[in-house]
Predict the structure of Cation diffusion facilitator family transporter.
Amino acid sequence: MTKTKGLPRPLTHYAWLSIATAIATIGLKGVAWKMTGSVGLLSDAIESVVNLAGALMALWMLTLAALPADENHAYGHGKAEYFSSAFEGFLILLAAASIAYTAVERMLTPQPLEEIGLGLLVSTVASILNFVTARILLRAGRQHNSITLEADAHHLLTDVWTSVGVIFGVGLVYLTGWFWVDPIVALLVAANIVWTGYQLMSRSAAGLMDVSLPTEELKKIESLLAGYREQGL
């Protein structure tokens, strides 16, 4: 594994881990969709493609953020990470729109599903892989104070919950034969991930616009500074 120039080795490892996981889950979920024909599993696979794009963007932004200050960027390139977070939020919203469109189309033209049991097993393996990677990235993001790694972790966790909902819905179809459940679950999942995308984009906008701290926190800081002033510091 190549070490990216200018990027701390640990962050390089985490970024590449995310990319490898995305590639693996795309393959697994693609197989699950092909086996079953489930629109829910298709939406899950689409989300993994978004994960790959987000992971690649995260690696690029981390590389930029690690560059030292220069003549044109006196305060460094740290804010580059906020662009990655905003990009991931946008991708999540795009995936939600794609899932919703596909689900509505399937509601209008319902189709039977095949090989559901084996397809769900493959999808479950992919979800476990995503969950483990997300926990690793989340811990690393907090440890290194990296919004990019945290955004990538939350994106993967969103994918995990997406998969749980899809697996539940497709499993219900398997048990009951209610084919209309498949697109309904996909729509519910799309609505859920819209909220995650909105949160990521809002947080990025706040970071880029240098939004001030909450009033209570500002008062605490002012109180601490007043104490130092009284001591003549």
User: Anything to note?
Assistant: The chain is about 80% helix and 0% strand. Helices lie at 9-36, 39-65, 80-108, 116-143, 147-176, 181-208, 215-230.
